[in-house]
Amino acid sequence: MNEILVVIDKLSLFTFIVCTMLGAGLGLTVQQIWKPLRSPRLVILSLLTNFVLVPVFVYLLVQVVPLSEPLRDGLLIMALASGPPALPKLAQIVKGNIAFSVGLMMLLMLGTIFYMPMVLPLVVQGVQINSWDIAKPLLLLMVSPLVMGLFIKAKFAAIAPIIQPILFKLSSYGLLFGLVVRLFIHTNDIISLLKTGAIFVCAIFIIFSFSVGYLLGGPDIDTQRVLGVGTAQRNFAAALLVATSNFDDPSVVSIIMVTSLLMMVIVLIAGPKFIEIDQATDAQIKQVEV
Q: Could you tell me if residue 158 is inside a domain?
């Protein structure tokens, strides 16, 4: 039964990522994706947030909080893996800048391909990973559908608006179905992490990541939201690849899966509320200005 659920989970994940990336490509142009990245300030702060501030914070956090070595290793792997495949969908959920989310995802994904193999062996003993091992699945599942969508948008613009809503619905179904299945599969892992207190460390990790991303993602609110969720949701695909190929202890994979799951659930639950707070704050500022 569990094996069947794992297959369903993988199919849901595949549907979610491919449909999200293909749908994003159908709604954008290369110029739109590139435009937000023409801001040196935003690019530098995005890189600083994801490749310096979050990894350093998590490294210090796991030195202070007593955790078993497998759990500590899993959290460090997650901290170093950036460029989440779900970012365009998360940006849609929090009403962020979709074009920036795609550009940021590509930027962080490219950074992770080179950054992770260099830095990970310095903080986690015994890990061996090369750039191509990380790049291969990301290129296949993320870049290829995006390029295909951009091509269809450029050459067959009339059919793009027809296909895109269907793909976004499929991606939403894949996300929700995958979350339900993953919650069921990892129920025992979640309970055990609650007992050890590790899940609270995960929560601190997520809160810090979102906060620093949101605060440094300005000046526009739609880019703040994207950098916030894009920093809080790490690249679980790259992290999982490293964990499964380097560790026999299932706790390493468990902490990665539970952290990723927790990140997604928090965004889905808190995202709409966060938008309401933003809108209320903007309304108050406008009243004061008047």
A: no
Which one-letter amino acid corresponds to residue 23? G
pLDDT of residue 57: 95
Token pair 């989970």: residue:
9
**CA–CA gap between residue 141 and residue 262 (Å, rounded):** 22
Whether the link from the prior residue into 137 is cis, omega within 30° of 0, is: no
Pairwise CA distance, residues 176 & 157, whole Å: 29
User: Is residue 232 included in any domain, yes or no?
Assistant: yes
Give the count of domains, the chain: 1
Which domain, by its residues, includes 210?
Answer: 2-152+163-282
Neighbour-count burial of 156, counting CB atoms closer than 10 A to its CB (0-12 exposed, 13-18 middle, 19+ buried):
exposed
Residue 69 inside a domain? The answer is yes
Residues 56, 32: Cα–Cα separation, whole Å: 32
Q: Give the model's pLDDT for residue 100.
A: 87
Residues of the chain below pLDDT 50: none
**pLDDT of amino acid 26:** 87
Q: Alpha carbon of 121 to those of 115, 124, 125, 247: distances in Å?
A: 11, 5, 6, 13
**pLDDT tens for residues 166-194?**
888 888 888 778 777 777 777 777 777 77
- Please report the pLDDT score of residue 53 as a whole number: 95
- Spatial separation of the C-alpha atoms in residues 206 and 196, rounded to whole Å: 18
* 262 in a structural domain: yes
Any idea what the CATH number is for the domain that residue 62 is in? Answer: 1.20.1530.20
Q: Distances from the Cα of 74 to the Cαs of 155, 258, 270, in angstroms?
A: 44, 10, 25
- Reported as a single tens digit per residue, the pLDDT across 185-226 is 777 777 777 777 788 888 899 889 999 999 998 778 888 989
Query: Buried b / exposed e across 85-102, counting CB within 10 Å, b at 16+?
Result: bbbbbbbbbbbbbbbbbb
What does the pLDDT read at residue 273? 66
